[in-house]
Design brief:
about 30% helix; about 140 residues; elongated; 3-stranded antiparallel beta sheet; single chain; alpha+beta; 3 helices; 3 strands
Amino acid sequence: MRGGTVRVAEGSVGKRCNCTGEDGRRLGMRCSKPRRADGGWSSSHGRWVYQLELPRGRDGKRRLLRRVPAEYPNTRDAAMRERDHAKALVQLAGDDEQRRDDLGALLMRTPSGQGLPSRDTVIRRLMLADPSKSTSPSANS
């Protein structure tokens, strides 16, 4: 959304695995093994992951952050905590299009399984990227 308040999608948490189908392609979240017959999650198949749609880049393209959380052991709670942290980081950019783009790029460059930068690190990077912004991006938080 251009020029308006940034809404951050809720995101989702689920399990993915490296199983492949008959065509040799990964099944990912389509694999039936991460679910038990009663519908609950299997404790022995797949890894917890989260995904979050980031604000579109200045080029208008969608950006989907899909990651395995860095926290060990890999649990649903760890995936939810990291997803919520990523959502809070996105909010730091506020309505500033340049900051949203820079922040989205930063999050997309962070490898899956590696921890996301801290809130303070992101604030410093956003301020260094555009020192003409005299107010902290956390002022609206």
